[in-house]
Amino acid sequence: MRKSNPAYSAEHLAFLQGIRRKARFVTAMRYLILVAFLLLWELAANLGWIDPFIASSPGRLAAAILRLYSSGDLFMHIGITLFETIVGFVLGTAIGTLIAILLWWSATLNHILDPYLVVLNALPKVALGPILIVWFGAGMRSIIVMALLISLIVTVMSVLAGFNEITGEKQQLMRTLGANKFQILTMIVLPASVPTIMNALKISVGMSWVGVIMGEYLVSKAGLGYLIVYGSQVFKLDLVMASIVILCVLAAMMYYGVAYLERKIAVWRR
Amino acid sequence: MAKTIVEINDVSLTYHETNGETQAIDHLRFSVERGEFVSIVGPSGCGKTSILSLLAGLLQPSAGNIYIEGRPGYMLQRDHLLDWRTIEGNILLGLQVKGLLNERTRAYALSLLKTYGLYDFLHSYPHQLSGGMRQKVALIRTLACSPELLLLDEPFSALDYQTRLTVADEIYGILRREGKTAILVTHDIAEAISMSDRVLVFTGRPARLKSEHRIALGDRTPLKRRNAPEFKEYFDTIWKELDCYAQI
C-alpha cells in the first residue's frame, strides 16, 4: 500500500530530499553554465583576448537588441519571421497529415508512391529555392512554401510510420466489431497516433525554422534571417549574433509550446 | 428444445501467399446448439483461429457453407482496450461502431458493468485496471452488443495462471447467467474441459474434426469441475488424442 504524506518514514523523507537536492543541482548547473559563458565572453572581449568587432560580446549584443527595439523594428522583424514559420508549420503539418491519411487508406497508392517519397525526402529542399522564387515571387510566399516543403515530407513519413505501427491487432478488433475503414481511421488510427503526430510536430517545428531562415536568406527584405544576412554584409556582427540569439529563444519557445500541448492532450497516458 | 445456432458444412479454407498455398481447414463439419459451450482444441497452428475468423465473417471459406444465426461477438487473446478512452468509452465502442448506441443499449452496457463489479471504474482509464479486470471489460464490451453467440479466441492466454483460473471462472459465470452460446478456442485442455459442454478435437493442419467429447460434469463452476474425479479421465483421453499429432 502507498502511504500518504504524513505517514512517510524518515528513510523515505531522506530519499525524497535526495531527489529534490539532485534536481536543484541540475537546475543550478544549467544557469551556471550560461552565466559563466556570458561572463567569459564579455571578459574575453574587454581584455582583448578576442576581437569584439568579429566575435561581438554580450554587452554589444544587448545594445544591438536595444537599438533595434528603440528604432521600432525589433517586433516587426520578429513578427514577420514568426508569422512565416507558424504558417509554414501549420500548413506542413495539416497537409502532411492529410497525405499520410491518404497513403494509409490506400496501401497500393503508398506502394506506388514510395520511391518518389524517398527521393523527395533525400532531396535538399533548399535547392528548390531559385525555382520557388520564380514561381512564387521574391517575397513572403516563397519563404512560406520553402518552410512548408522542408517540413512536409518529414511529417508525411513519420506520421505514416506511426499509422502503420498501430495497424494490426487493434484493427482486427474493430473488424470483429464490424467497423468500416473510416471508423477504424477516426476511432483507432488517429487517436492512437496522437503521440506520433506530436513527435512529428516537434520535428517539423525545427524544420519550419530552417525553411524560413533559408528562404529569408534568399529573398527577404525583413525578418530575422534578413537581419542576419544584412548584418553580415555590412559587417555588423553584433546585429547578426543578436538575431541568432532571438532566433534561439523563439525556436525554443515554440518547441516547448508543442511539448506543452502534447502533455495537455495525452491525459490518458501514465 | 435445443436449436442449432451454428452449422458448419463441409467447410474448407486455403490461404494464398506468394510462396505457395496452405490448406488450413479441410472439409470440416460440426454444429453448435443454442446455449451450448463448445471448446475447440488442437495442435498449435492447426487453424483453430481460422474457424473463428470464418464464423465472424472476417474470412470467406474456399468451399462449403456456414450457417450462423445473428452476428457473433468476438473476444480476442488480448483485451485491446483503447488507452485513450475511459472504461465507459471502451464498453460502448462496439455499439458506437454499429450505430446502435442509444439510451437503452447504453443503460444495458452500464448495467453489465454494475452487475459484474466494475461500475466504480466507469471513468477510469484502462491502465488503472489489472489484467483480469481489463479482460472482463473486454467481455462486457462484447456483450454490450447483445450477441447470441460468443467467439472466444484464447481469451485467457495473456493472463498469468492464477488470474486465468479466476477470470475463466467469472467469465464462465457471466456467459451462463446471460444465457449465451459460446465457442472457445484454446490450447489448454484443462481449460476446455473445465468450461465446456462439449470439446471438439481437431487434427493438425489442415484441420479436420478428429473427435468429439461430451463433458458430463454438470452445472459446477470451472474451478469446481477441475476437482471432479472424472476431470482427469477426460483430460487423459483428450491428451492422448492430441499427443500423436503434437510435433515437438
Quick tags:
A: mainly alpha; MetI-like fold; 2 domains; 82% helix; B: 248 residues; alpha/beta; Rossmann fold; three-stranded antiparallel β-sheet; 36% helix; 25% strand
CATH topology of the largest domain in chain B: Rossmann fold
Oligomer: heterodimer
Cα-based radius of gyration of chain A, to the nearest Å:
24 Å
What do the pLDDT scores of chain A average to? 88
CATH architecture designation of the largest domain in chain B:
3-Layer(aba) Sandwich
What's the count of strands of chain B?
A: 9
Tell me the overall shape of chain B.
globular
Mean pLDDT of chain B: 84
Instruction: Count the E strands of chain A.
Output: 0
Rg value of chain B: 18 Å
Order of helices and strands of chain B: EEEHEEHHHHEHEHEEHH
CATH class of the largest domain in chain B: Alpha Beta
For this structure, what is the CATH homologous superfamily of the largest domain in chain B? P-loop containing nucleotide triphosphate hydrolases
Our measurement of the CA-to-CA distance between the termini of chain B, rounded to an integer number of angstroms, reads: 44 Å
**Greatest interface and its participating residue counts:** A-B, 20 and 19 residues
The class by helix and strand makeup of chain A works out as mainly alpha
Number of domains of chain B: 2
Instruction: Give start-end ranges of low-pLDDT stretches of chain A.
Output: none
CATH class of the largest domain in chain A: Mainly Alpha
What coarse outline of chain A follows from CA principal-axis ratios?
flat
